[in-house]
Write a structure and sequence with these properties.
The chain is of the alpha+beta class. 65% of the residues lie in helices and 12% in strands. It folds into 2 domains: 197 residues, no CATH class; 113 residues, 2-Layer Sandwich (Heat Shock Protein 90), CATH 3.30.565. The chain has a 5-stranded mixed β-sheet with strand order 1-2-3-5-4. Strand 1, helix 7 and strand 2 form a beta-alpha-beta unit. The longest helix has 74 residues.
Amino acid sequence: MDRWHSTVVRVTGVAVGFMVLHDLLFGWVTRCGAGLPLIFVLAFLGAMAYPHTKAWLVFGLCAVLTVAVLMVDATTGPDVLALALPMVLVVFGIGRAAQHRSALNHELKIRDEQLRQLRDERAALVVADDRARLSQQLDGLLQERLAQLTTAAESADGLGPAQAKTLLESIESGSRQTLDDMREIVGLLRGGEVDLAPAPTVAHLDALLARHRSARSRLTVTGDSRSLPATVELSAYRIVEYLVTVLADRADAPIEVAVRFEDDALEIRVNGLVGRGVDLKAAIARAKERAKLLGGSVDVKVARGHARAVAQLPVVG
């Protein structure tokens, strides 16, 4: 592109020299048929290729070339110069307008990219701030829970076997609750989920399906339905959310979600159609990462445009 820009002035200068030489050698012959279209092209290209000063230099050379073409032209003669020169100026003006618009478009693209980078940086700062607050929350939680457990352990001196057993059971229960809370916060930090609103649970899956476009969705819950640790509830909801979001791409897409409460695990099954252009791999990767935080698994099989996912999340206690 730069080489093309640098040759417009030279080509115009060579054309002027050649046309003057042609006038001197051949005198009155017809040149306008080939000369005028060449002049219009060179005037437009010069206006497009160069900034203000150099562009007007090309226009001046085109004006000289117009004179050289028409001065001893056998068909038109020099009288046509009064019409030809304004036409060259008009073509030159069109080229300048196009060059100005092209420059504006280029500037807008640069500004748009800068704004996009600023938005990305701002979003990254917001996420970093929220993660810092979550880290502080984790530190405060650990300090508080450890102090409670230490106090409870110190109070065990002098207790009878039955009382000591009850105290140890409460310490165990508190330790598990602390571990669940820690897992939830660490999962938020790793997954980038920085919303501090109440975490969704399995009970919110019905509302999740209702929000999607598909009118043929169905949720089935079996087993001993009960309240599970917060990390299991949140992970179950997220896994279904990741998969349903890509499977509910069409309004008529049937989606089946089955949740089964087992003694030591929560099983989730999601069945649906895979639409064209859907990034199912990314959704599966996020679901597997979520299950991995709890030591669980997600198995997905796709056949003939139909996806079947089975997630197993262990439940401790």
